[in-house]
TrEMBL record:
Similarity section: Belongs to the multicopper oxidase family.
Signal sequence annotation: 1-28
Name by which UniProt lists this protein: MULTI-COPPER OXIDASE
Molecular function, one GO term: copper ion binding
Residues annotated as domain Plastocyanin-like: 38-88
Upper lineage: Eukaryota, Viridiplantae, Streptophyta, Embryophyta, Tracheophyta
Protein origin, superkingdom: Eukaryota
Organism: Salix purpurea
Length: 88
């Protein structure tokens, strides 16, 4: 019976090693890169058209999806002539 317990211990350790390598939170750091172009665009909502600030031509802008521990690199190309503030 002692031999069977030893085999279960090895099997458990091997299973944990495989599972931890498959989980994104436990793997090596990843750098997520995003490119955002900020520009004015005419957008129609509820039969009303107006100029809105868009990110990559979208309003609302794209979702930034990352995992805890990831590095994030965001490059922004501002194509707006006047001063403005963006909130993330």
């Amino acid at each position: 019976m002692e031999g069977a317990g030893k085999h279960y211990g090895i099997l458990l350790a091997l299973s944990l090693a495989i599972i931890s390598g498959a989980l994104p939170c436990c793997s090596s750091q990843t750098t997520r890169k995003f490119q955002f172009n900020i520009e004015w665009k005419k957008v129609t909502r509820l039969c009303t058209t107006k100029q809105l600030l868009t990110v990559n031509g979208e309003y609302p802008g794209p979702t930034i999806a990352v995992h805890e521990g990831d590095n994030v690199e965001i490059k922004v190309k501002n194509q707006i002539a006047q001063n403005t503030t963006l909130h993330w």
